[in-house]
Amino acid sequence: MRGTLLSFARVRCSQGPLEPRLRSVAAGCEVKPRGVGVARSQWCAVALVRAVAGSLRWVNRFRPGPVHLTSFPLGLPASRVVVVEAWSLDAWLDSLSRAAASTRAVYARDMRALVRWLEAAGVGAPEKVTRRDLRMYFSELHSSGYARRTTARKASVIRRYFGWACRTDRLAADPSAGLSAPRGKASLPKVLSTAELDSLFEGSAAAQATAAAAPEIELRDRAVVELLYGSGLRVSELCGLRRQDMLGSKDSITVWGKGSKQRRVPVSEPAAEALNDWISRGRPKMVTEESPDDRVFLNRRGRALSPRDVRRLLDGRSRSPTHPHALRHTFATHLLDGGADLRSVQELLGHEDLATTQVYTRVSRERMREVHRTTHPRA
User: Which alpha helices (H) appear in the chain, and where do they start and end?
Assistant: First the structure.
């Protein structure tokens, strides 16, 4: 970029650390003081390059392969420059109508990462991709330290994309057919102990202090915990809960699961009481001009509660970091421990495939073995 501030800059980082290469680009930018014959957009462009060079020390840990830093017109997303129309990614994502928005976002990120890598390797269209290219990509992921589960997920996304391309006659042959990738290590869902559940319901010292200063926050947090554990909701289902979803019955609510699937789930008596207290006494105190009328749960700013807000409030109440999904795992495991049949648990959780629910039977058996080992005198 020396001598011409708006030149097309490209930094190749396929060898060596990323940060020194970025710094070399920043050092090569001849920048006059702002206002001395330099347009505002030119000055901002070079400042942006220098800011990136000074703040991306951590990028090397996540670098999936050859990385290219390419300047692009201000206001135009990088993804629209990198991902060309030949890949038809938007059409593919639109075809995933039954997938949740968060799932589609992950699929889009994984495929764009592959496309960037392929384009850097000189493969500019899906019909030019070979099985060897994909094997090299997975080899690069492995050498970059990606987890086996992450690599397995990316392989699944890639197979799904190329399968769609073949079905829609965009490709004659599927380069991902028969492609092997490392399987993710199977891990059993985490189930909260009785002590961990008690701490969530009672709240930490900090949570109790907040309850004294702002009772409406405590009312909301308690309702959130009761619903996550008492009804086994996904965090996205809880955050998307609307006031009209509570109509029709006092002991059940309507939730919208993955793929916009609707189901009716029971609400325990403690959860119904906590929910009623929040709506009648807590929510009115947190409503602002920006508050959505239909959303049940609000954050401190009066906006709709987000999954990140839920994670924060659980971490604030528990003794150790707790993921919202752990309460759903605990809900399912406790049902099976109490004698519930697998089909009923499947319906309550909203699983499309019974095999997804069957993992909890393994959790329940492991718990029984552990009880036997720790309590039986001749175990």
Answer: 18-27, 40-55, 59-62, 78-82, 89-95, 101-120, 131-143, 148-167, 194-202, 205-213, 215-230, 235-239, 269-277, 283-286, 307-317, 324-337, 342-349, 354-375
Catalytic residue among 159, 222, 283, 328: 328
Helix (H) or strand (E) holding 181: none
CA–CA dist 211, 217 (Å, integer):
6
Average pLDDT, the chain: 77
Query: Is-catalytic flag, 137?
Result: no
Alpha-carbon distance values, 355 to 38, 346, 358, 359, 361 (Å): 63, 9, 5, 7, 10
Q: Are 172 and 213 in contact (CB under 8 A)?
A: no
Give phi and psi for 53, each to the nearest 5: -60, -30
- Closest-CA residue to 207 (of 193, 221, 196): 221
Does the annotation count 250 as an active-site position? no
Catalytic status, residue 285 = no
Q: Which residue has the tokens 């495991």?
A: 333
Catalytic pick among 190, 303, 325, 367 = 325
Q: Is 234 a catalytic residue?
A: yes
For residue 176, the surrounding DSSP H or E stretch is none
351 catalytic per annotation: yes
Across 157-191, b (16+ Cβ under 10 Å) vs e yields: bbbbbbebbbeeebbeebbbeeeebbeeeeeeeeb
> 258-270: string of b/e by CB count within 10 Å (b at 16+)?
beeeeeebebeee
Angle, helices 324-337 vs 342-349, to 10°: value is 160
Which tokens hold the place of 134?
A: 């994909």
Active-site residue, 116 included: no
Is pTM, for the whole model, over 0.85?
A: no
Can you give the length of the chain in residues? 379
| Residue 232 to residue 267: CA distance in whole angstroms | 10
- Per residue in 106-133, pLDDT tens? 999 999 999 999 999 999 899 999 999 9
Active-site choice (153, 258, 263, 303): 258
